[in-house]
Amino acid sequence: MTKLLAEALAATDKLPPDVQDDLARMILAFTQRESEVYVLSEEELAALDEAERGGFASDEEVAALWTKAGR
Length: 71
Known about the structure:
The chain folds into 2 domains: 3-32, no CATH class; 39-71, no CATH class. The chain contains 4 helices and no strands. It has helices at 3-11, 17-32, 42-52, 59-68.
């Protein structure tokens, strides 16, 4: 195991159990599909199209929103 992967896995100790389970499922799915090509869903393709058109908030806009919310 690489140092980076060990650090990433260690960091998951701080996450809620349901998030840890989600990450575990993602890792297992990734390792079991090593030879397959992932095909994006229609929703994922639409999200990419939206991102290319600038449909998502910038980092600055998100930070301003958090500041406005008092966080």
